[in-house]
């Protein structure tokens, strides 16, 4: 069957470079599947609209603002073009770490001690909050991905710089107690939780560990006992449904030294670069990269406006 697929990639968010790599890998896979590909870098509205009118489906390979904020999803809903991933409301919700954790915490998910801080708060007030929480802390923007603007703070001397850096990306930031433990991530494809991927890093798992110096390594199968792996998979499914997600996604978690599973964030447009963990997990269930893309495309839909 002939099909023309638009791949939204790039954009103007802080995650542009990662999105371009994801988009290229997805485009190559769609070509391998025998479909037409239209690469769309949404810099200008009218050029983007013109390109979208020629496609049958859209694969959203945008990361961060615009692509995961609900804006693009709302446009595609209005145009009645099926697209991959979650709809407008759940995309906007999941990009906002503050709102996500408020909802999941009400449903019994375990979070470390945390406080939200707004740009208008005095720095002295922020420092007082942090001091009351104790160190180490993690400082992060509320609405960013790829660990952009995220810093681990070991002492009060480092706090003000980390807060200012986080405010470069958002008006609301989070201060949270550092969780000692191991990091994992679990992808969702349709209604199925994928094998858990273990994330190992000798340093704090920030943007550099992921995409810069790339000191992190990823392992699938993970080192988990079967019972713990199943618990993380069930948690990922529960979070996926509680946040109204659909199609595909990925929940990042920390398995604390206390034995509790702490969610970090739900990704509604996971990375699909050569180093990305989502295709690593689908390989474990027998899907190569093009087959993974085909299944994601098969789940594409839109919400009636």
TrEMBL record:
Task: Report the transmembrane regions from the record.
Answer: none
Identify the domain of life.
Bacteria
Recorded metabolic or biological pathway in which this protein acts = Cell wall biogenesis; peptidoglycan biosynthesis
Residues that coordinate or bind Mg(2+) 1: 252, 265
InterPro entries, A to Z: ATP-grasp (IPR011761), ATP_grasp_subdomain_1 (IPR013815), D_ala_D_ala (IPR005905), Dala_Dala_lig_C (IPR011095), Dala_Dala_lig_N (IPR011127), PreATP-grasp_dom_sf (IPR016185)
What GO molecular function terms would the record report?
ATP binding; D-alanine-D-alanine ligase activity; metal ion binding
Cofactor note, please? Binds 2 magnesium or manganese ions per subunit.
Q: Which cofactor does it need?
A: Mg(2+); Mn(2+)
Compartment list: Cytoplasm
Name the chemical reaction catalysed here: 2 D-alanine + ATP = D-alanyl-D-alanine + ADP + phosphate + H(+)
The UniProt annotation places Mg(2+) 2 binding at 265, 267
Q: Which residues form the ATP-grasp domain?
A: 101-298
Presence of keyword Endoplasmic reticulum: no
Q: Which GO terms describe its biological process?
A: cell wall organization; peptidoglycan biosynthetic process; regulation of cell shape
Summarize the protein's role: Cell wall formation.
Extract the PANTHER family matched here: D-ALANINE--D-ALANINE LIGASE (PTHR23132), D-ALANINE--D-ALANINE LIGASE B (PTHR23132:SF23)
The UniProt similarity line reads:
Belongs to the D-alanine--D-alanine ligase family.
Record-given protein name: D-alanine--D-alanine ligase
Q: List the source organism.
A: Photobacterium galatheae
């Amino acid at each position: 069957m002939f099909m023309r697929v638009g791949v939204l990639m790039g954009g103007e968010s802080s995650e542009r470079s990662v999105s371009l790599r994801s988009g290229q890998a997805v485009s190559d896979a769609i070509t391998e599947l025998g479909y037409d590909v239209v690469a769309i870098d949404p810099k200008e509205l009218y050029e983007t609209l013109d390109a979208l009118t020629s496609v049958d489906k859209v694969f959203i390979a945008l990361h961060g603002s615009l692509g995961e904020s609900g804006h693009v999803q709302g446009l595609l809903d209005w145009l009645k073009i099926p697209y991959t991933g979650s709809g407008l409301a759940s995309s906007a919700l999941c990009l906002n770490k503050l709102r996500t954790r408020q909802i999941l915490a009400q449903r019994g998910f375990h979070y470390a001690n945390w406080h939200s801080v707004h740009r208008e708060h005095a720095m002295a007030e922020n420092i007082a909050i942090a001091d009351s929480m104790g160190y180490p802390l993690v400082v992060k923007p509320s609405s960013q991905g790829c660990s952009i603007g995220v810093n681990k703070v070991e002492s009060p001397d480092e706090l003000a710089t980390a807060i200012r850096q986080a405010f470069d990306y958002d008006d609301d930031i989070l201060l949270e107690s550092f969780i000692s433990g191991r990091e994992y991530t679990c992808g969702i494809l349709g209604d199925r939780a994928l094998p858990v991927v273990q994330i190992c890093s000798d340093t704090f798992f920030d943007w550099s560990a992921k995409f810069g110096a790339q000191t992190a390594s990823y392992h699938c199968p993970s080192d988990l006992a079967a019972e713990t792996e199943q618990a993380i998979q069930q948690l990922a499914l529960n979070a996926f449904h509680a946040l109204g997600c659909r199609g595909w996604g990925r929940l990042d978690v920390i398995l604390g030294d206390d034995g509790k599973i702490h969610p970090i964030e739900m990704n509604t447009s996971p990375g699909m670069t050569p180093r990305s963990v989502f295709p690593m997990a689908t390989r474990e269930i027998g899907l190569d990269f093009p087959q993974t893309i085909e299944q994601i495309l098969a789940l594409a839909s839109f919400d009636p406006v």
